[in-house]
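haha ok so turns out i had the wrong file open the whole time. this is the CORRECT one, sorry everyone. sequence first:
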Amino acid sequence: MPKNFIFYWVVMLVCSTGCSDSNFESVGPAEGSQRAEKAKVESGLAWVPIAESSDGLQVPSDLEGLVGPQDPQEVSGTQGSQGATGAMSAPGIITAIYTAQQSGGVRVTGLQWTSLPGTTVSFTLAADSTVDLEANGSIFGIAGNQGNAAHCGFRFLVDNVAYGDPSWGDVIVGCGSGTNSHAGWWCPWTMRRTLQLRAGNHFATVQQSGWASTTSGCESSAADYSATRFRIVSR
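then structure:
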């Protein structure tokens, strides 16, 4: 672009701040440049490099576009209050307790599962329930062909379903037999089991058996010191 045009453009910028006819007097190029520089300093204007755009227009090369307004910052909502702590669930509530006690003596040898008289309990569950079974008693050993040692087993039978080991059930009891044994003649035992049962009618009992393939076994009495006591708790 011609230098005289640049000079003219600067003078126009200077005059935009206020000029009169007296401002224009004939000066040489050098003095004109010096005056223009001085006018630029006094007016606070700065020289801006010139660049040519693609369409041939002369435009300042480092002019930046106006910065648009910033978007408002997102305002975080206030945190909601903490909800109340829920009530703790209650433990299993007992809905019913059933008890029974052996009413007659039983003497069993060999593998013969025999229900103990007086220990059968019938009960009804209003809803699906957890049922705890517990039984205990004391037996007298029958050694048979096993010298002075005796073994027998006890188990729960619920709705005609037998639980535990086929030979020894839910508990095996070992006991001495006769006056020459080193163990006590009467041996206590206990057993427990927990079941999940459906709503409806049910029955449960306690069974006793002797030592399989032998003539050894046990005898349980209806006396209080020996009788089997059976307890059922539903919850």
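The two ends are 102 Å apart (CA to CA).
again sry for the mixup
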